[in-house]
């Protein structure tokens, strides 16, 4: 082949090879970048899912702790109510004993004075007995009110504990569901992007 025709062909072949390599380099760079983006997307999905799961578990632990405290407070209130009932019973016994002693002393004083238990002395003794009986009833009522209030507090704390346990179970389910949803969304997004890069969609 003449030299004049050979040179253009060699030059053309040289430039063609360089152009092909230059075109391939950006394509490889784009492929590596896309893979890196897919990897970052997967890592971001995992981080989000883990964060949601941990938040849910923390909320669940807090609710469980609250439930435990409510149950503890319920037991304390119930125990205090029982103590209050026992104290009230003791106060009533003491009040009755004191009333009997006072009435006996009053009768002794009236007898020693030579008065007969009729008329004014009798009315006075009856009034005293009525007042003492009324005070005994008041002691009983006050103690019962305190005991009932403590018993009601115990029941309320049990109710609060049940509500806190329900919240704890809900937080646990929400943690698992939230993390699972994030993983599924992330997987779907990654699959879609991978398909786009492959040109299948």
Give the mean pLDDT: 76
Give start-end ranges of low-pLDDT stretches: 1-30
H/I helix tally? 2
Shape: rod-shaped
Describe this structure in words.
94% of the residues lie in helices and 0% in strands. It has helices at 3-112, 120-198. It is an all-alpha fold. The longest helix is centred in the N-terminal third of the chain and has 110 residues, at 3-112. It contains two helices and no strands. The protein has one domain (52-198). Helix 1 (3-112) runs antiparallel to helix 2. It is rod-shaped, with a radius of gyration of 46 Å. The chain starts with a helix and ends with a helix.
Please sum up the structure shown:
The chain has helices at 3-112, 120-198. The chain has two helices and no strands.
Layout of SSEs?
Elements: H1 3-112, H2 120-198
Note the main attributes of this structure.
201 residues; mainly alpha; disordered N terminus
């Amino acid at each position: 082949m003449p030299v004049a025709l050979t040179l253009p062909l060699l030059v053309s072949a040289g430039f063609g090879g360089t152009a092909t390599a230059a075109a391939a380099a950006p394509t490889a760079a784009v492929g590596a970048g896309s893979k890196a983006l897919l990897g970052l997307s997967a890592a971001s999905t995992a981080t989000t899912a883990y964060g949601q799961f941990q938040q849910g578990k923390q909320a669940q632990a807090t609710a469980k702790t609250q439930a435990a405290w409510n149950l503890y407070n319920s037991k304390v209130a119930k125990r205090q109510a029982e103590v209050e009932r026992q104290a009230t019973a003791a106060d009533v016994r003491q009040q009755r004993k004191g009333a009997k002693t006072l009435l006996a002393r009053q009768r002794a004083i009236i007898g020693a004075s030579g008065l007969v238990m009729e008329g004014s002395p009798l009315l006075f003794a009856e009034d005293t007995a009525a007042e003492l009986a009324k005070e005994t009833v008041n002691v009983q009522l006050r103690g019962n009110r305190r005991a009932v209030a403590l018993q009601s507090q115990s029941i309320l704390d049990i109710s609060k504990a049940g509500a806190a346990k329900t919240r704890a179970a809900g937080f646990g389910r929400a943690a698992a569901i939230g993390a699972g949803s994030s993983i599924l969304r992330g997987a779907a997004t990654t699959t879609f992007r991978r398909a786009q890069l492959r040109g299948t969609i």
